[in-house]
Amino acid sequence: MKKKTDLELTPDSFSRASTLRELMAKAQHHTQAEQLVIAALPQSLAKGTRFVSCHDGELTLSATAATTASQIRFRQHEIMEELRRQELFRFVWKLKVKVAPPRFSERPKAKMTPLSNENARLLKEEAGHTKDKQLREVLEKLASHVRD
Questions:
Q1: 57-81 pLDDT tens trace
Q2: Source organism's superkingdom (predicted)?
Q3: Which of 17, 18, 21 shows the shortest CA–CA distance to 7?
Q4: For the packed helices 76-83 and 11-40, what is the interaxial angle rounded to 10 degrees?
Q5: Does residue 56 carry a pLDDT above 60?
Q6: What are phi and psi of 115, to 5 degrees?
Q7: With CB atoms 3.0 to 4.6 Å apart as the test, which of 30, 68, 87, 128 could cross-link to 63 if both were Cys?
Q8: pLDDT over threshold 60, residue 8
Q9: Domain residue spans of the chain
Q10: Can you give the pTM of this predicted structure?
Q11: Mean pLDDT in the chain?
């Protein structure tokens, strides 16, 4: 008995291939447009700025910080003047800048600092004065986490 493979040529697979080609062409066009936009920006603003879209003369950019977005808005006329020299952006008349912070920020892991001897002594003292048995056990357990 023969096994069917996923690589079989069917009319549906041809339409998927043409769709993939279209998507790849759009992605390449978007990348080229982004390179032109980034080249037109002042060097201090280029880092953290991305090209989003350009529809009906409205250019949309995204910046990772609000300060960068404000500076781009402040210098929008000189940026658009530089961009209009490119054939692709010759009809740009409006610039929108959105703030899109990075998705993942690399924060250092919080370090647990060990309990000082003085704080451990105070916790044990408080545990001795409390009437609630469960609270006393928790306080004593916390006091046991003392640094060496």
A1: 899 999 999 999 999 999 999 999 9
A2: Bacteria
A3: 17
A4: 120
A5: yes
A6: -75, 135
A7: 68
A8: yes
A9: 19-99, 112-148
A10: 0.58
A11: 86
Residues 124, 140 contacting (CB under 8 angstroms): yes
Please give the Cα distance from 13 to 141 (Å, whole number).
65
> What is the gyration radius of the CA atoms in the chain, in angstroms?
30
For the CA atoms of 131, 134, 135, 141, the dihedral, rounded to the nearest 10 degrees, stands at 130
Chain centre to alpha carbon of residue 86: 29
Is the pLDDT at 16 greater than 90? The verdict is no
* pLDDT at 17 (0 to 100): 74
Using DSSP bridges, classify how beta strands 58-63 and 49-55 pair: parallel, antiparallel or unpaired.
antiparallel
Q: Tell me the one-letter amino acid at 118.
A: E
Per-residue model confidence as pLDDT tens digits over 18-27: 888 899 999 9
- Residue 31, amino acid: T
User: What is the four-CA torsion angle of 9, 10, 16, 18, rounded to 10 degrees?
Assistant: 80
The CB density around residue 142, as the number of other CB atoms within 10 Å, is 16
Question: How many residues are given for the chain?
Answer: 148
Tracing tokens 């993939």 back to the chain, one arrives at 20
